[in-house]
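ZP: hey, is the adenosine-5'-triphosphate complex queued? I don't see it on the tracker
AM: it wasn't, my bad. submitting now with these inputs:
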Amino acid sequence: ISKIGVLTSGGDAPGMNPCIRAVVRTAIFNGLQVVGIKQGYKGMIENDMYEMGTRSVSNILNLGGTILKTARCLPFRTDEGMETAYQNIKAQGIDGLVVIGGDGTFTGALRFSQKYPDISVIGVPGTIDNDLYGSTYTLGFDTATNTVIEAIDKIRDTADSHDRLFFVEVMGRDSGAIALRAGISCGAEAILLPEKSTAMEDLIAHLKNGAINKKSSSIVIVAEGDKTGGIYDLAKAVQQEITHYDIKVTVLGHLQRGGAPSSFDRVLGSRLGFAAVNALISGQSQKMVGLEANHIKLTPLEEALSHHDFKLESDLLQMMDILAI
Ligand code: ATP
């Protein structure tokens, strides 16, 4: 390996910048050149790349988002798009790629490196959804969860003052990871997750029980991938059954994706970026670097993508209702 290209793709996640910084500096320390590819695969196709030096990543550890920008790029899904991308990075002399993103990004990376095996590819799990197999945590999940907690703590203040019940929708696509952690952290009265169905009667009984136990407010966290029904319809249906609370709905939205990365995500980004470059140097390809039991682990991209049965922590699932009685 002599020249590494680094890109961020798919949804942005706090911690991507510390990771880019680690990739650039680890590569340069090892005598390699580094090229920053703008807007994910789009920059490969449109030849939007620039040489990066140690100072080009100064003062970015504390920044959310990604200095390389990110995009969803449809042409990269086609053979023609991939060929153009390949020709462009070959012309640059790039022989190794670090791709930071989620499952879509890894699917693209795997197809690309199967088609063009002379380009080694290492993936870094960068998504707030925490939905990849092979890493207990993905970059951005911790920061996003902390942002959610901060917002729900504020909602709790107003809910408590007015005897209100709030339905709060949080991000995570098909994963309830943010919802579950935030729910435990904020003492949510109920957490609706895509991984676990909740019957309407049970939810209502649970909330009525809260009133009997003299709770002055209730928070129900709804993961965006929850299948109980849209959050507004859900709130309306519950309001018909529960009249002692005034019900409000808050959809937290994209504020969850921004903000300075937490200490955890800065360290995780640094570790994974460092490990990704070392993996390329040692001849690895088509792997994802992850963190399991506090150790760096390499997982074949194929495997990281094929495990759709990502499980939430069973003790958290077990305690989520019990701790809210
Ligand atoms: P997040 O989990 O945050 O959404 P992601 O990496 O899953 O991140 P996607 O938009 O699904 O985000 O994928 C990012 C990019 O990866 C796509 O815009 C596309 O360029 C590329 N990609 C996804 N699937 C494929 C595929 N089957 N073949 C080639 N490229 C793909």
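AM: back. The first helix runs from residue 16 to 29.
ZP: great, adding it to the tracker
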